[in-house]
């Protein structure tokens, strides 16, 4: 059963439920309304009784603890973080344009959104538990049950300790119960999830019930086998690949509208999720990359949050529009990109045809 | 008739309708949900038929124009701006603590909020109309009817041309039809209002129907007589005072909660609305300003948007908590402040008693 407001999304996969908003809806405002945020699930969406819910923290800690939600809310000061959430598979369906379809949820450009998350600081919770020497990774585990790979098991993730201990505004990982000022919807992890600014969505675990402090990355299937960039299906290639952590520099066109003799073009750009990074500039091309024009960045840059941009150009003769972005860390998007068999981190220039331009226009 | 969601607010004045959220609700998230934004009106809230609505632009322009809402949306590219809206009279009721009550809406700390506004760039609209040489001010006029000062007349404002022509993200004035991704509510100016980042709320006119390009400031009563800082009621004092434009550096405590033997303190801080300014630091005191401790700024700084902060301190013996903020432009809040007869721009240190601390604690 999907929440009423969420049903408006475009379903990309019915079971498990995966859905994204229509692209123009994505960038009609800077902050993504809850009804417009993509839903990524790996199993059935669990319905959890808040009263019986517990978060357990164990592993290399001085004091293992179990918190009910009110206990967590009482014990630590509430905080609020703006962060872009993006699936590592966003834009996956474009791999098919290169002649090879990637398996997995066939995302268009909409598996991304920017929300205001409410919760407590993971770093402060970990300090409370007393992280032991030798700790290198923090594991997260949900209350969902993923099927199709043997016995059902929960989705899981882990992040390096160094990231988990960040406390700067905009860089801090949250244990979050709220989204845009409301409790989380079931589709977004009610009653609790973690939110890791700057990291791919898969590192933010919904229906979060277990945190393990460890000297190793999580052994969870989704860390060890799934969210990795690999170029062949040899088991050792996957075993040797590093799990994806930071999201990649990206940009996409969400809307091309004709007005009088002009085209109005809108979209988003997201800097690589590195500490202190931000979008530097966005450019568009109408000749598939021979010449570039600056787009207008219409929102002030933030940490680990997208920038919206727009451009207005004469429509005459324009059959396609291409976008590319640059970030302050010196990254730029490639013209094209080698196929990876799981279809992750597609960030080559994004090109859309202009509707009605016609073959001979 | 007040919209259902808005009725939750605390009414500060029934006619005209003025209301603010409970203070803790204000800072439970960075972006203010529409249901939690204060409502400031000077007359009855008009209900406007979107179909017959027109925006007229006249005065010192090459091309006077009249736009329906769809025409405005078609003609100019849509944009989105995060901006804090704050009433110049916010915290007015604190003047009474100094022994002298200021007339006007008795605001506590809640006549402030930060929203994501959707609309078009005023600068681009003005360029389209062709601003003539000699222009110095842009006037705005609403469709409300303010009573009690002779014949009913619309609320109005004006801003300097230089401000109106700003086009940088976060500094740009919008003609806005949307708020947090939804159409404006009637209480917030449906179908159109302007939003001036960095300026007091009174310069952002709701139910906006008329823009006049001029060599003079607007003659509207609310520009010439009302939103000014004056220290006596002589007509020449008011006539000689400059209308308030930028909002002032400010901070306030929104919540003090006891937990175990600690106090959890939360609040907001807002830098003066100067170009490129932002909050630099926030400090709290438990001895009314003899000693200060740094508060933790929990949200990344933005342009013309507030910062949220929090602090946790031992509760023992603490009877009051005081906050003060500093901004990058070098402003700091004063310990105390001279009374001004209209009760504007109160920004002295904000002190709250700790509930249950008792006289002898």
Automatic annotation (TrEMBL), chains A, B:
- Per UniProt, residues of the Oxidoreductase molybdopterin-binding domain are 42-221
Task: State the Gene Ontology BP annotations.
Answer: sulfur compound metabolic process
- What InterPro entries would the database entry show? Ig_E-set, MoCF_OxRdtse_dimer, Mopterin_OxRdtase_euk, OxRdtase_Mopterin-bd_dom, OxRdtase_Mopterin-bd_sf, OxRdtase_Mopterin_BS
Q: Where are the transmembrane segments?
A: none
Keyword hit for Iron-sulfur: no
Chain ranges of the Moybdenum cofactor oxidoreductase dimerisation domain: 255-354
Q: Which cofactor names does the annotation list? A: Mo-molybdopterin
What keywords is this UniProt entry annotated with? Heme, Iron, Metal-binding, Molybdenum, Oxidoreductase
A molecular function (GO) term: molybdenum ion binding
Protein name in UniProt: Sulfite oxidase
Which species does the entry assign this protein to?
Planctopirus hydrillae
């Amino acid at each position: 059963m999907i929440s009423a407001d969420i049903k408006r999304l475009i379903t990309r996969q019915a079971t498990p439920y995966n859905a994204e908003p229509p692209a123009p809806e994505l960038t009609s405002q800077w902050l993504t309304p809850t009804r417009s945020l993509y839903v990524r699930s790996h199993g059935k969406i669990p319905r959890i009784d808040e009263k019986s819910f517990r978060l357990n923290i164990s592993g290399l800690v001085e004091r293992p603890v179990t918190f009910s939600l009110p206990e967590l809310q009482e014990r630590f000061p509430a905080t609020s973080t703006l962060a872009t959430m993006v699936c590592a598979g966003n834009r996956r369906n474009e791999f098919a344009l290169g002649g090879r379809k990637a398996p997995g949820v066939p995302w268009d450009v909409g598996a991304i959104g920017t929300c205001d998350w409410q919760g407590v600081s993971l770093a402060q919770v970990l300090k409370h538990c007393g992280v032991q020497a030798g700790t290198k990774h923090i594991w997260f585990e949900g209350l969902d049950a993923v099927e199709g790979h043997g016995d059902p098991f929960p989705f899981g993730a882990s992040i390096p300790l160094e990231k988990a201990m960040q406390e700067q505004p905009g860089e801090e990982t949250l244990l979050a119960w709220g989204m845009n000022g409301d409790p989380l919807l079931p589709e977004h992890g009610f009653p609790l999830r973690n939110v890791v600014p700057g990291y791919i969505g898969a590192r933010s675990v919904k229906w979060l019930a277990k945190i393990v402090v460890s000297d190793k990355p999580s052994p969870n299937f989704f860390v060890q086998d799934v969210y990795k960039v690999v170029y062949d299906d040899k088991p050792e290639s996957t075993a040797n690949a590093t799990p994806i952590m930071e999201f990649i520099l990206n940009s996409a066109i969400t809307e091309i509208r004709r007005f009088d003799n002009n085209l109005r073009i809108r979209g988003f750009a997201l800097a690589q999720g590195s500490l202190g990074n931000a979008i530097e500039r966005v450019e568009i091309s109408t000749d598939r990359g021979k010449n570039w024009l600056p787009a207008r960045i219409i929102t002030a840059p933030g940490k680990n949050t997208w920038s919206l941009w727009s451009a207005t150009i004469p429509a005459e003769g324009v059959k396609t529009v291409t976008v590319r972005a640059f970030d302050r860390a010196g990254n730029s998007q490639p013209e094209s990109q080698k196929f990876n068999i799981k279809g992750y981190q597609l960030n080559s220039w994004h090109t859309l045809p202009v509707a009605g331009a016609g073959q001979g226009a």
